[in-house]
Design goal:
Elements: H1 23-26, H2 39-42, H3 47-54, E1 60-63, H4 70-81, E2 84-89, H5 95-112, E3 116-121, H6 128-139, E4 144-149, H7 153-156, H8 159-162, E5 166-169, H9 175-189, H10 197-207, H11 211-223, H12 232-238, H13 251-265, H14 269-281, H15 286-301, H16 307-322, H17 327-340, H18 346-361, H19 376-380, H20 405-409, H21 424-440
Parallel strand pairs: 1-4, 1-5, 2-3, 3-4
Helix pairs in contact: 5-6, 9-11, 10-11, 13-14, 13-15, 15-16, 15-17, 16-17
GO molecular function: ATP binding; ATP hydrolysis activity; DNA binding; enzyme activator activity; single-stranded DNA helicase activity
Keywords: ATP-binding, DNA replication, Nucleotide-binding
InterPro entries: AAA+_ATPase, AAA_assoc_2, AAA_ATPase_RarA/MGS1/WRNIP1, ATPase_AAA_core, DNA_pol3_clamp-load_cplx_C, MgsA_C, P-loop_NTPase
């Protein structure tokens, strides 16, 4: 706790970073106008810009991927709005530390008359009790919260905290934004990056929207001490691409799965393969991809092509026996099959309708003629009386009623209504044939 409040109230006027500090720290913007890629929030007509112009901040949560400016914006917000500033990290701050910070904020407010902005990095790492402990201080204005998180606040923060703070989404930095970052690095060093145009574009791609990571790459390249432009191959030998953002247990996991499934449903085989490879590149278990494929084969292809499930299960089994890298062939084939198969959710919808009907009708008994009668008493009660064995009838169809009597008497609408796509076209013909047979009494 000795350094918990180090620099408290002076962050906005902190000394220049050391010469050996990371390049991202040395080039940290000094005004909100210098922040790239987040103008939708920081511009004068943006949500944060309007708060600063009014000189009054609301508690807020900055949500976005790493390296897009959450920490920088938080510091600059406090400075430009005239607030005292305290920085904490949810990784290293416990409940006792937070209570001391709240007390310090209250004391400083009484001493200086200035409101305090408390920046909490990795806010989602706070437990529920710690999040709850902040609520009274936010409620009475002891401090204004500026939280930063890379995870969806709806999943990671308590609802009471969300109701007291505005959530602002920071965008992933685009190529033009990252180009501005490179230019600033070049201005800092007084010379261009030693890259040819193609390699320069590749470097931006390696950063994957993360300015902090990009500046780290730039620092490495300037340290080489060469003015000869490097090509892509030489660049790849010197620096490493940023690992893709992918959290297998949180929102990114579900976003990728959703994108994959919807691409399959939308018959976009290219996009489906893209999202599958994105998940694998992020370290996802291939079994997760196959499970989603299997769900799509039933939910979205269904009886329009019953072979879709067979194809996926076979590919999955082959993958498990072979493994990577060869196993990607089986996954690709299964993805191609499901994405290009005719689509129908008729069976899925029918099951939902059946469930609703079952809930509505309660415990209606089945008709006696379809009940077995293993005892004499059951036979006396009429069990199995009048049952017709379908295989003894023409076309193996008796036309008997199988619903409970009360449902049958209401002439219910057909639950399963196949489409005119794929194999279900043939099923429609069969159902129409059987319906006609029932109506004729044959």
């Amino acid at each position: 706790m000795a350094d918990l409040f180090a620099g408290f109230g002076t962050q906005a006027e902190s000394a220049a970073p050391a010469a050996d500090a990371p390049l991202a720290e040395r080039l940290r913007p000094s005004t909100l106008a210098d922040v790239v890629g987040q103008q939708h929030l920081t511009a004068p007509d943006g949500a944060i810009g309007r708060m600063i112009a009014a000189g009054r901040l609301s508690s807020m949560i900055l949500w976005g991927p790493p390296g897009v400016g959450k920490t920088t914006i938080s510091r600059l917000i406090a400075r430009e709005a005239g607030y005292e500033f305290m920085q904490l990290s949810a990784v290293s701050t416990g409940l006792a530390d937070l209570r001391k910070a709240i007390a310090a904020a209250a004391g400083l407010r009484g001493a200086t008359g200035r409101a305090t902005a408390v920046f909490i990095d990795e806010l989602h790492r706070f437990s529920r009790p710690v999040q709850d402990a902040m609520l009274p201080a936010l409620e009475d204005g002891t401090f204004t919260l500026i939280g930063a998180t890379t995870e969806n606040p709806s999943f990671s923060l308590v609802s009471a905290l969300l109701s007291r703070a505005k959530v602002f989404t920071l965008k992933r930095l685009g190529e033009d934004d990252l180009e501005q970052v490179i230019v600033r690095a070049e201005q800092h060093f007084g010379k261009p990056l030693p890259l040819d145009p193609v390699a320069r574009g590749a470097l931006i791609g390696m950063a994957d929207g993360d300015a902090r990571y990009l500046l780290g790459l730039c620092d490495d390249l300037f340290a080489i001490g060469t003015d000869h432009p490097l090509d892509v191959q030489r660049l790849a030998e010197i620096v490493q691409a940023r690992a893709p953002l992918y959290d297998k247990g949180q929102e990114e996991h579900f976003n990728m799965l959703s994108s994959f499934h919807k691409s399959l449903r939308g018959s976009d085989v290219d996009a489906a393969m893209y999202w599958a490879t994105r998940m694998l590149a992020g370290g996802e278990d291939p079994a997760v991809v196959f499970r989603r494929l299997l769900c799509a084969a039933s939910e979205d292809v269904g009886m329009a092509d019953p072979q879709a499930m067979v194809q996926v299960l076979t590919a999955w089994q082959a993958f498990e026996r072979t493994g990577l890298p060869e196993g990607r062939l089986f996954m690709a084939q299964a993805i191609a099959y499901v994405a290009t198969a005719p689509k129908s959710n008729a069976a899925y919808l029918a099951f939902d309708k059946a469930a609703a009907l079952a809930r509505k009708t309660g415990s209606l008994p089945p008709p006696k003629h379809i009940l077995n009668a293993p005892t004499a008493l059951m036979k006396e009660l009429g069990y199995h009386d009048g049952y017709q064995y379908d295989h003894d009838r023409p076309d193996a169809f008796s036309g008997q009623e199988f619903y409970p009597d009360d449902i049958a008497a209401s002439a219910p609408e057909a639950l399963y209504q196949p489409n005119e796509r794929g194999f279900e076209r043939e099923i429609r013909k069969r159902l129409a044939f059987w319906s006609a047979r029932r109506q004729s009494g044959r």
